[in-house]
TrEMBL record, chain A:
Coiled-coil boundaries: none
Region (Disordered): 1-35
Name this protein carries in UniProt: ABC transporter substrate-binding protein
Bias (Basic and acidic residues) ranges: 1-20
GO molecular function, one term: peptide transmembrane transporter activity
Family matches, as PANTHER family: PERIPLASMIC BINDING COMPONENT OF ABC TRANSPORTER, PERIPLASMIC OLIGOPEPTIDE-BINDING PROTEIN-RELATED
Species whose genome carries this gene: Bombiscardovia coagulans
Gene Ontology terms describing biological process: peptide transport
TrEMBL record, chain B:
Pfam families the UniProt entry points to: BPD_transp_1, BPD_transp_1_N
Organism: Bombiscardovia coagulans
Any single GO CC term annotated in Swiss-Prot or TrEMBL for this entry: plasma membrane
Membrane topology reported for the UniProt record: Multi-pass membrane protein
BP term (GO), one: transmembrane transport
Designated name of the protein: ABC transporter permease
Cross-referenced PROSITE patterns: ABC_TM1
Subcellular location, principal: membrane
Length: 580, 325
């Protein structure tokens, strides 16, 4: 279309062929349309590159100037500390939303319970400064501290305590079923609360240190998913789901002992391990917990700037067998799997920090004994057991291992190769957590399952035949009942240990390892709890003072500016990055 | 005008169909938000209580009906999980993703157009094939690997030249633009390099096609040099094609930037969507998907209209009722 139009112009031009003005063409019309030629180079490359250089320099300069440490430092102690975590809370609704991330961030920091726990998992006073237990161990009378207040200024009294526990039971809020043998709770006067049980329950105080014992303001109106009103040493300043939670010291805090040492705590959540490691290296965060033992390796070498610790935890990696499943209901198959698994190999491949565990109770809980000798690694025995059931490596039994994708594929692959020689063909089915909840947890549709049971004091799941394990043992139920009815802690411990031994012998599951938390802190950070810090973080102790370096010269400067990384560290980082 | 009305009616019909599709397909997913919220130590009573409080036990048509009604009123609802308004949540995430993608596209255009033109116009054959090779190599780099490489080169803490932060987005958001821009630098560069390579290839092939056409011959016969002809006539003629490519790339990048968002720990739309699906926060997911679908359709509409603006031949063909060719 356009070329034909041009043609007409050209023809018209030839018709009006009168004056031939100077130009590149003999055609005056075309010459008229010709734009004046630009002087010099049509594309001023020199100018463009000069501009680019200026922009580049500006950006580099801006980058340099941004590197100053952001945390304000007064009198050597930083006013704010940033902590990196892995698992983020989706919302702040601690009465409905499950997940250890909420316990970790809020319990003891924003919300407080009647009683609390220290980092060795012992029960300590909190809102109640003391308590009395009746002779028959069914009536608990708690004495509250005087002058308790919530962060919004409301008074906290015994009515709030009774109301909170009654709401928990009435609405079946999270962990309501942990409060076993509950009969009633009432405020005797404004400083005294009485909890009545139908029968003794040895775990009651420990349970009250968790969600079941938290005290909420019955008068306050707020959206619990996005806000929090508690009585703890910190208040929630801002919350971005899956990203960060900022805690600010509570100016109205009633107590002295747990008063916050640092004004602002930034809890930051990293979905990606490498991003977290990077944040620590650039000192955007002062602590990272947890970090995999492998990724922590470069920090272990740099003792001048970092300390790497491993702490005890209650995480149990449970390889559950469907005890009512068609293939795994045969005890010999379950025992064979336990004999075939080389726990030390699994642990070594993860960095060698985790602990082997032979039964359902981790070292931080009552009833713990080392029972790893019950099912030692013995592939020959495993083979014989499988042969008795009729399976050999040539004619293997096919089993499906269903587990959430948060644990990666490596563990599954290792298990598959460990079980292959004894005549088990393990098929991996790595699914989303919600799918796992539906298929395995709710519908019990699985052969083998792998999940991290992180809770402490959760032995009761082995006494519930309807739990997804499908494990049903009257002996264990009786022993557990005895343990919970015992008045003395040592009796409870004794019966629980017996029950755990029985569970382990019956092989309803294999406990791959007790996960130990690796924490990396910057030099100068104090008071960060190392044990159990994924479920309980007494944050009031945390403080950070970037100490003046003792040495002078380049090394000392590096400490103050930021750590210098040698090329070997780059190589290590790259290696782990790619491997991870 | 008639064309516009027809497009808009189609647009609304498509949105409605999409809403049904999204709603139905999400209900096929196993698991629900109540079980996810209750977790692995929950009792059936607790899950039942949560379902009741969240309204999950209502029949599906009723749930769809109320969702659609809210949508028509411009209310995207509240996330069951976070309790926040979904439009606010999406806005917060979009305030990370859009600047990221915008910066990425700008960088990609600067790289792509320059390299594409160079690959056709440069006098030396070596430079031309070098540009072409570079585009091929850069285009084959996976985004994740490219991002890691940039981190190793330029990130604070780990990089060889430690200038840019490599993770996270400041809590203060865009209130401190310098900080926010800093965190965008590496992710935008990652996107820009990879997308820039593909734009280079498009520009190169489109310009090459035009270079051999009669238009360029005509322009040269009118006295332009080859490069003048390509810059003034050739580029203008390739514009409609480039606009389509850039428009679609932009829409694709909104969700495609997910890998980059995850690597650099940016709380953007893509990574948010993945989290919401994992948590079975279905109200949030369906509203977010709906918004994205609407956005894609709007981009499509804009690209089509721009096309007609840039290429008058299309307009004439509909005015006279003839087909495109």
């Amino acid at each position: 279309m356009s070329s034909s139009k041009l043609k007409t112009d050209v023809q018209e031009g030839t018709v009006r062929h009168e004056d031939t003005t100077a130009g590149p063409s003999t055609d005056p019309v075309l010459n008229q349309r010709l734009k004046a030629p630009r002087k010099g180079n049509p594309l001023p490359w020199q100018l463009v590159s000069a501009l680019l250089a200026v922009v580049l320099i500006a950006v580099l300069w801006a980058g340099r100037s941004y590197q100053q440490p952001t945390a304000g430092v007064t009198a050597g102690i930083s006013k704010s500390v940033s902590i990196g975590f892995r698992l983020a809370p989706a919302n702040l609704d601690i009465r409905n939303q499950s997940g250890a991330a909420l316990d970790q961030a809020l319990i003891g920091n924003v919300y407080e319970g009647l009683v609390s726990r220290d980092q060795t998992n012992r029960v300590m006073p909190s809102l109640a400064n003391s308590w009395e237990i009746s002779e028959d161990a069914t009536t608990y009378t708690f004495h509250l501290n005087p002058n308790l207040t919530f962060s919004n200024g409301d008074k906290l009294d015994a009515e709030d305590v009774a109301w909170s526990i009654n709401q928990l039971m009435e609405h079946h809020y999270h962990d309501a079923d942990q409060l076993q043998n509950f009969q009633s709770v009432k405020a005797i006067d404004k400083d005294h609360v009485q909890l009545q049980l139908t029968a003794p329950y040895a775990n009651i105080l420990w349970v009250l240190t968790g969600r079941a014992g938290l005290v909420f303001d019955r008068k306050a109106q707020y959206d619990p998913k996005t806000q929090a009103v508690g009585s703890g040493p910190y208040t929630v300043e801002s919350f971005t789901p899956n990203s960060s939670l900022v805690l600010k010291a509570n100016t109205r805090y009633w107590g002295r002992q747990h008063r916050a040492k640092t004004e602002t705590l930034h809890l930051r959540y990293f979905a990606d391990d490498n991003a977290a490691v990077n944040a620590l290296k650039s000192q955007d965060i002062q602590v990272l917990a947890p970090i995999t033992a492998n990724l922590a390796a470069p920090f272990t070498k740099d003792t001048e700037h970092y300390s790497v610790h491993s702490g005890a935890g209650s995480d149990k990696y449970v390889l559950a067998f469907n005890n009512k499943g068609s293939k795994t209901s045969d005890m010999r198959v379950r025992q064979a799997i336990r004999y075939a698994i080389n726990h030390q190999d699994l642990i070594d491949s993860r960095g060698g920090v985790d602990q082997p565990m032979g039964g359902p109770i981790p070292s931080v809980d009552p009833g713990y004994r080392d029972i790893t000798n019950l099912y030692p690694h013995n592939p020959e025995r495993a083979k014989r057991l499988m042969a008795q059931v009729g399976y050999t490596p040539d004619k293997p039994l096919t089993l499906r291992l269903t587990y959430p994708n948060t644990y990666g594929t490596e563990l599954g692959d290792q298990l598959r190769s460990q079980l292959k020689p004894i005549g088990i063909n393990l098929q991996l089915q790595v699914v989303e957590f919600s799918t796992w909840m539906q298929d395995v947890y709710t519908n019990h549709n699985y052969d083998l399952s792998l999940v991290d049971h992180s809770e402490s004091h959760d032995f009761s799941q082995w006494t519930n035949p309807n739990y997804y394990y499908g494990y049903d043992s009257k002996v264990v139920r009786d022993l557990y009942a005895k343990a919970m009815a015992a008045r003395k802690a040592e009796d409870t411990d004794h019966y629980l240990a017996q029950a755990a031994q029985q569970v382990s012998q019956d092989a309803p599951a294999d406990w791959l390892f007790n996960y130990r938390i690796t924490t990396v802190t910057l030099t100068g950070l104090r008071g960060f709890p190392l044990n159990l810090n994924q479920t309980l973080l007494n944050a009031w102790k945390i403080s950070y003072s970037p100490d003046k370096p003792k040495t002078s010269g380049p090394a000392a400067r590096a400490l103050y500016d930021r750590p210098k990384w040698r090329s070997s560290d780059h190589a290590t980082f790259l290696q782990y990055t790619i491997a991870g | 005008m008639r064309y516009l009305v027809r497009r808009i009616v189609l647009f609304i019909l498509a949105l409605w169909a999409i809403s049904i599709l999204i709603f139905a397909s999400l209900r096929i997913l196993p698991g629900d938000i109540a079980t996810v919220m209750a977790g692995i130590n929950s009792s059936p009573e607790q899950v039942a209580g949560l379902r009741l409080r969240l309204g999950l036990n209502r029949p599906l048509p009723a749930q769809y009906g109320s969702w659609l009604k809210d949508l028509v009123h411009g209310d995207f609802g509240f996330s069951m999980l976070t309790g926040r308004s979904i439009s606010e949540q999406v806005a917060a995430r979009a305030s990370v993703t859009f600047p990221l993608v915008g910066l990425g596209i700008v960088l990609a255009l600067v790289i792509g157009l320059t390299m594409g033109c160079l690959a056709v116009m440069a006098r030396s054959t070596r430079l031309r094939s070098f540009c072409h090779m570079l585009a091929l190599v850069a285009g084959s780099i996976p985004v994740l690997w490219g991002g890691l490489l940039l981190i190793l080169l330029f990130s604070r803490g780990t990089g060889l030249i430690q200038i840019f932060p490599s993770q996270g987005f400041p809590d203060t958001g865009w209130r401190r633009p310098a900080e926010a821009l800093q965190t965008m630098a590496l992710p935008a560069a990652t996107l820009g390099l990879v997308v820039g390579a593909s734009i280079t290839r498009y520009t190169r092939s489109a310009l090459n096609d035009i270079a051999g056409s009669g238009w360029i011959d005509m322009a040269r016969s009118c006295g332009m040099t080859r490069n003048q002809a390509l810059m003034r006539v050739g580029l203008r003629l390739t514009l409609p094609q480039l606009v389509s490519v850039v428009g679609l790339t932009f829409a694709e990048m909104i969700t495609g930037a997910m890998v980059v968002e995850n690597l650099f720990a940016l709380p953007g739309l893509g990574s948010g969507l993945i989290t919401d699906i994992g948590n079975r926060d279905l109200i949030a997911v369906q509203s977010e998907l709906f918004m994205l679908a609407a956005f894609f359709l709007v981009i499509g509409l804009i690209v089509d209209l721009l096309h007609r603006l840039l290429d008058p031949r299309l307009k004439e063909s509909t005015v006279t009722g003839r087909g495109r060719s």
